[in-house]
Write a structure and sequence with these properties.
alpha+beta; 5-stranded antiparallel β-sheet; 7 helices
Length: about 350
């Protein structure tokens, strides 16, 4: 049994002033928002992972898929009922396409079992087309060796993995235009772009709008940038930039903004990555996770101190994730927990 104790005194010594609430951080609009029309797009498809060590599917649907593949791709006819699938798994393949990715560029893909396979370890994804809403339009071809291990070597889920660089863009994904044409408050025709904040926050939306208006030196009664809600800022494109809209977007997205990030913990259980944003506090609690006994002695200890302590004690990322999730269940985590 391992015991982990976290005290407020240790947190006070370990955490710099900038991590405390009220200590504003300097960043740029690029760090905080995306230009509408320039976001990632999700693609998906259904494929097969082969070469498993007896950990594949046992379902009839997988046998049908294999028979279709042999008939369509290899012109080999076989009855589904005559096939065995212990070395093959039916999988969902997904990819996030970065904005402006060009034909021929590579990207990572995620592979997840949708049958009853027990593990995808050491399997190979055979060529799989990925599409958006129209399954007849293929954008990415995905294939390659599947890895189910996180960055620290731990296996968080044996039925879900990645193929690093396994996708190749065969057709560019269409994106809407960055600028939109509308009518201004005075009835004139205007072009504008919209900035979508990664974290909805009314104060941050106002700060972003103020930064743009200060840069453009516009009067307060006629702002070029307006915060429409907690997540959306609309920015009119000045006539001086009509022929250089890309340059305008580059300039405003590099403008500085002082902000206090919201307390958020983002966990990627597949990769084992934990990202702590803002001054995430932990209330007094005593929890048990496997063979780990953890005690937070006082309210107000900081999660970054817990993260540093687990590193020193050589805890794995999966153990840290389990501790954080248990703290959240115990209502001791003063932050929004996001599991991906």
């Amino acid at each position: 049994m391992r015991t982990l104790t976290l005290s407020l005194a240790a947190a006070l010594l370990a955490v710099p002033l900038a991590a405390w609430p009220g200590a504003a951080r300097a960043g740029t609009i690029r760090d905080l928002a995306e230009v509408k029309g320039a976001q990632e797009q999700q693609l998906y498809g259904v494929g097969l992972v082969v070469g498993l060590r007896g950990t594949g599917d046992k379902t009839a649907e997988t046998r049908k898929r294999i028979a279709q593949l042999l008939a369509n791709g290899f012109r080999f006819t076989a009855k589904a009922e005559d096939l065995t699938t212990k070395n093959i798994a039916l999988v969902l393949v997904t990819a996030r396409v970065r904005p402006f990715l060009k034909q021929g560029q590579r990207l990572d893909v995620t592979v997840s079992s949708i049958g009853d396979a027990s593990s995808l370890e050491n399997g190979t994804l055979i060529p799989t087309p990925l599409h958006a809403s129209d399954p007849d339009v293929q954008y990415v071809r995905a294939e390659g060796l599947v890895s189910v291990k996180a960055a620290d070597g731990a296996v968080l889920s044996p039925t879900s993995g990645t193929v690093s660089g396994g996708g190749i863009l065969e057709r560019e994904v269409p994106a809407p235009p960055l600028e939109v044409v509308g009518t201004g408050a005075d009835g004139r025709r205007v072009e504008y772009i919209e900035l979508i904040l990664r974290q909805s926050d009314f104060r941050l939306a106002r700060e972003v709008a103020d930064s743009v208006n200060t840069f453009l030196r516009v009067p307060q009664e006629a702002p070029a940038a307006r915060a429409l809600d907690a997540a959306l800022v609309r920015v009119e494109i000045p006539s001086a930039y009509a022929a250089n809209k890309v340059g305008f977007i580059e300039e405003i997205t590099n403008l500085p903004v002082a902000y206090e990030p919201p307390a958020t913990v983002r966990i990627n259980e597949r990769t084992g990555v934990v990202v702590i944003t803002g001054a995430v506090k932990v209330n007094k609690a005593a929890i048990s996770v496997g063979n780990i006994q953890m005690k937070v002695e006082e309210d107000g200890a900081l999660l970054v101190d817990l993260q540093a302590t687990t590193r020193k004690l050589a805890y794995s990322n999966s153990e840290l994730i389990a501790i954080i999730k248990e703290l959240d269940r115990a209502k001791a985590l003063q932050a929004r927990l996001i599991c991906e």
